[in-house]
């Protein structure tokens, strides 16, 4: 009969995710992982497999965190222009939360691993597609309600917003503060200003 695990698997995975996010995959050693996760090397192997499998699980943990913080409200049935602007501010809140700026784990991974790791590349692409789909849903609602121009291309704007979000992450890692990031966001979302005849609900 297998013995129950003596540690919190989810908490250990989050600690691994944080370390990978801060240092990158190649720079993170197994020794650092077992210390950060508070488990033995054997427990790491038994629970998560090797370093690569652990990293894939950490990517999933990161995507779930990002989804809860930013994307889930965009998929609400009534999400529209207001939800899109709130998502942009949520991205900034997310970025300035950490004293040592980290950009985005998925963006970092795109540059470090995706070009030569097919399994990683699939996860990165799925993450980008998930972001675009959430933006697209809110954009279509906003267009239907007349909050943005009827001629707006929801697909193109969704991809643009994904690029904008990752641009904010890079700028944050380079040292941009909240005011600078908010200024960038304000300029970047100019195409999402309300249509001239739109009147917000009282």
UniProtKB/TrEMBL annotation:
GO MF, one annotated term: DNA binding
Domain HTH tetR-type: 6-66
Residue ranges of DNA binding: 29-48
Record Pfam families: TetR_C_13 (PF16925), TetR_N (PF00440)
Gene3D superfamilies, per the entry: Homeodomain-like (1.10.10.60), Tetracycline Repressor, domain 2 (1.10.357.10)
Keywords: DNA-binding, Transcription, Transcription regulation
Matches recorded under SUPFAM superfamilies: Homeodomain-like (SSF46689), Tetracyclin repressor-like, C-terminal domain (SSF48498)
Keyword match NADP: no
PANTHER family named in the record: HTH-TYPE TRANSCRIPTIONAL REGULATOR YJDC, TRANSCRIPTIONAL REGULATORY PROTEIN
Protein name per Swiss-Prot or TrEMBL: TetR/AcrR family transcriptional regulator
